[in-house]
UniProtKB/TrEMBL annotation:
It comes from Salinicola endophyticus. One of its GO terms (molecular function) is L-tryptophan 2,3-dioxygenase activity. Heme-dependent dioxygenase that catalyzes the oxidative cleavage of the L-tryptophan (L-Trp) pyrrole ring and converts L-tryptophan to N-formyl-L-kynurenine. Catalyzes the oxidative cleavage of the indole moiety. It comes from the Bacteria. This is Tryptophan 2,3-dioxygenase. It catalyses: L-tryptophan + O2 = N-formyl-L-kynurenine. Pathway: Amino-acid degradation; L-tryptophan degradation via kynurenine pathway; L-kynurenine from L-tryptophan: step 1/2. Signal peptide: none annotated. Binds 1 heme group per subunit. It is an enzyme of class 1 (oxidoreductase). Its cofactor is heme. Keywords: Dioxygenase, Heme, Iron, Metal-binding, Oxidoreductase, Tryptophan catabolism. The gene is kynA. Belongs to the tryptophan 2,3-dioxygenase family. InterPro entries: Trp/Indoleamine_2_3_dOase-like, Trp_2-3-dOase_bac, Trp_2_3_dOase.
Amino acid sequence: MHDDNSTPRERSAVDLGNEQQVHWDPTMSYGEYLDLAPLLACQNPISDQHDEMLFVIIHQVSELWLKQCLHEAHAAARAISADELRPAFKMLTRVARIQAQMINAWEVLATMTPSDYLAFRDSLGQSSGFQSYQYRELEFLLGNKHPRLAEAHRRHPAHYQRLHEVLDAPSLYDVCLQLLARRGFELPEATLQRDWSTPYTPSPEVEAAWSTIYRHAERYWDLYELAEKLIDTEYNFHKWRFSHMKTVERIIGQRSGTGGTSGVAYLEKALALRFFPELWSVRGEL
Ligand code: HEM
Ligand SMILES: N[C@@H](CC(=O)c1ccccc1NC=O)C(=O)O
């Protein structure tokens, strides 16, 4: 139905020949709505090696998922700050499902052998996943704050500014701790107000608060659920890091990275990082 003064929607129809007809509005097609022309014009391997297409696509898919994770995790942090935990749980669950997809993507990439990769590795120059600004934003947002990591992006002012906004603001974990304070847990002042761009220092008071929540889950059910959503996210992040490290070892062994790091040794060291340290340490204390 349409109003009298509006133009009727133009319709197109095709008979599929099996007693089915498809009708559609030709003013907005699938490809137009999804902007597929520019999207599908972006897969441009620079060598003539067969496997480079896979390498490009796997990175592009990961970057799209990172975009969605950032969309969800930023919104979850805002919801938590507004004491709206249920929508935040839904968003964090979605982040965990996306992470599962990103982890599974390593299985596809593992079909590329060392010789397949080495055949085009030189064309990559000094580019590296180390320069993924969305990945860095997600790390900052979850709570791995290191101003030096933003420096790799100085030459791109828009990315640098964006990274600094997230670096200088409370992380997802910081807003959760602020929520615990609003719920009456006594936390150190430095946990609630500090220079957010600096690395987080774990505290016994925060661990004690999580301990109370885990011991009395029935009384603090929503905070208990929040703790488990955070653990899911960190657990999956860690699985992603581990699979990346193992895939890299399988493909380039102990070579140093194009981004200037030692390679696998650097990636192994990153496995020790913790976004929500007291949520892990408390498990040994319950
Ligand atoms: C053949 C496949 C791959 C190899 C050999 C590889 C290798 C490496 C190496 C050696 C590093 C350390 C930095 C450096 O010196 O370059 C690194 C970092 C990184 N890579 Fe990959 N990578 C591969 C695939 C991927 C894929 C598919 C992604 C998905 C987006 C990715 C994302 C990253 C990220 C985000 C970092 C930074 C990690 C951090 O700083 O903690 N890599 N990669
Ligand atoms: N750091 C990798 C190169 C690499 O993997 C890469 C290069 C360009 C764009 C994305 C990449 N992926 C992850 O680091 C290497 O050292 O072979």
